[in-house]
Amino acid sequence: MKNIMEAPFIREMRKTTANMYRMGWDERNGGNISYLLDESEVGEYLDLNNVLRTIPTGFDASALIGKIFVVTGTGKYFKNIDEDPETNLGIVRIGKDGTTAELLWGYKDGGKFTSEFPAHMMSHIARLSVDPAHRVVMHSHPTYTIAMNTVCAVDENEFTHKLWQSNTEAVVVFPDGVGVLPCMVCGTNEIGIATAEKMKEYRLVVWTNHGIYGTGKDMDEAFGLIETVEKTAQIYMLALGQTVNVIPDKIIQELADLWHQTPKAGILKV
Ligand code: 2HA
Ligand code: ZN
Q: Which are the catalytic amino acids?
C-alpha cells in the first residue's frame, strides 16, 4: 500500500484549500470541497474493504452508490487542512443503500463530512448527468462575489450579463453563465435540491448572501471558474456608481466567437 499523504488527490486538496484560505474566500469553517475519485487509484493507498465507520447521509444518494469522494469535514477550517489532512478531510464511499456513507479514511477526531454534503452530492449527480468527465464541487465565500450579489437583482441573466460586461475574460471562461439562487437556509436538503437543479444548466451557482459553488472536471477548472467570477465581481464593485465603459454586447459575442464559445442564449442583444 502506498502512503496516502503522497496521493495526488490529497496533495491537491491540501494545496487548493490553502490557496482558497489565502485568497480570503474561506474564513473560519467557511467553504467545502468534494472530489470524486477513481476507485482503482484510491485502492493503491487504502484497503477498500476496510470501512472505519458508516455515516448517514440524510438523503437518497442512490445515483452515486459505490462512488468514492474526498470531502472536507464539517466545522473544519481550510486554514488547518494542510497541516492535518487526516482530521480535516475524509474519504467516503456511498454505501449500497444509498443513504449511508462508508468512511475509508480521515475525520480522525470522530468528525464527519461538511454540512453541505447534500448540496455537494446532489450537484455531483446533476453535473455527471450532463458531463461524464465532471469530478469536483467547490463551495466558497469570496467577498466581492457576495458583495456584487448584494447590489444586484436575483436574476441570473442580469447577473451574468453584468459580469460579461465588466471583464473580457468572463464570457470566455463561463459562456454558460452563472446561476443564482435566492437567500435560503444553508446545510439543508432543500438548498441541495435547488442547487442541483441549477447545476443541470450551470457550472457556477451563487447562493444569495452566502457564496458560490463552482464545479469542474478537475480542481483547476472549479477553482478557475470561481476565481474569474470573483476577480470580475471585484472590478464591478470597485467601479460601482462610476462606470463609464462596459463591454458592448457585440464585443462580448466576438470574444466568444474568437474562442469558439457559445454564450448562454437570451442575454446578449446582438
Ligand atoms: O461549512 O460554508 O455553507 C461552512 C459553509 C456552509
Ligand atoms: Zn458556505
A: 116
